[in-house]
Amino acid sequence: MSVSGDTRYCGRCGTRLATDNRGRVCGPCQRALNTAVRDGPPPVPPGFWQVDLMRDSLAGRHMGHIIQSYRLHPFHGPHAIPQSSVARWLSISQAQLSRMESGAPLKDLDRLAHCARVLGIPAGLLWFQLDDEPAPGRDTSLDTGMTSTSVPRPGGSDRGRRVIQALDVIGGSQLGDVADSLGELVDHYSAAVCALPPADVYEDILAVRSYANGVMDRAGNAPRRADLTTAAGWLSALLAIAACDMGEHAAARAWCSDAERHSQDARHPDIAGWAALTRSLVAYYQGQPRQSASLASRGQQLAPAGTAIRVKLAAQEMRAAAMTGDASHMTRARRRAARQMTLIPAFTGGLGAFSVPAGEDPPYTATSLLLVGRYSEAAAATSRLIGTVYPPQSRAERPSGYARAQLILALAHAGLGALDEAAAAGHAALAGSPPVWPTRVLAGKLDQVLTRDFPDARQAVAFHDQCLKTGATAAARPQPRPGLDH
Questions:
Q1: For domain 373-486, which CATH number applies: 3.30.70, 1.25.40, 3.30.450, 2.60.40?
Q2: Which residues contact 246 (CB under 8 A, 6 or more apart)?
Q3: Is the terminal CB of the chain with fewer CB neighbours within 10 Å at N or C?
Q4: Is the pTM of the predicted complex or chain greater than 0.90?
């Protein structure tokens, strides 16, 4: 992972590494990995299978090579998993595993299925059928003249599987139709990732992204390959956003890397810009504002002027600078964001993940004002935002954005000493769908503020209880004193 200066972070949990740790993971993660390796295969995030190392091995359909790539995967830390450990998982000898990795491809279907189940390889990435999976279909000839078995089918919701079935029918004979359909799905999921629970939409996007991989593998140098690459990059950027909202930081970073690769291949810098924003957001919500500001600043060098992502990156730099307490840096970044907003042709904003909400202030303005203690301005800016972007009839389209706006408003009211207004906004934020990870972080912050500033107030106790019910990171509360009215 690229960071400023000599600071390095754990590749699994994002914690800052000790100066004498020359590995890629922190001590607790390494101990957890060591324990997991002794007990069996460690749990891995969905992005584990999407790095080039694994994708190339899976494309080769050689189980021995797949196992070797699994052992060498950087997710496991600085040291590869020994052959002896994997052999023990598979109930074979180390010598047998060595022959599998270096010899001819394994053909026995029972042994192939056993290896896949032990390692937890997603069924949709396999070239053979597991006993509990439906038989793969056939994919008719694309406009490149190829005939092949169906592209990989990942797991996922019934909704996601129906999308894949539709793509099979629509793109049965024309690669261009597949590319156009994938582009429309990017628009669809850009809106869905703001409205649906992130875990649900993640599985659906993953199904389409895996389908796109299969199409690209068979497309060769077809004329529309660039469009496929672009769509795959956007889908990876959406997966990074959904993983970030779930708090799955390792998976989010893996998808950011994949989006950046496709951005370069497709010569579409906007995609890399959105990946940079997700990296910056992860750092911000992990309490690393200087790293977040640095990532946002570098992302602006990638993103074209007059685009939504250029606005969002400048605004995120503003917010991260405000968290550090650097009001001057915050003001400069705010001016850049405002200037970029004026460069967007016929600016009307939008509601999707790859858009900027219409409004007179740059995104994150209210949060930035709040962080530097300008509570009255923060409350006014948030009220304008809610009135403009989240009127009652459209709140269901972006429930997590609306919830975070209410929490910023609540924190501003708390800073002004308005307990009733702060508690009301906090309850409104958590009254809807289950909160995503960034929302839980903000709710936890509000809970800490109310617990600190209004320790005996029933409103603060009630919000604390709601945080516990919704899974938000709540502050530790002292035991109530006898006679305290809840």
A1: 1.25.40
A2: 198, 199, 202, 436, 437
A3: C
A4: no
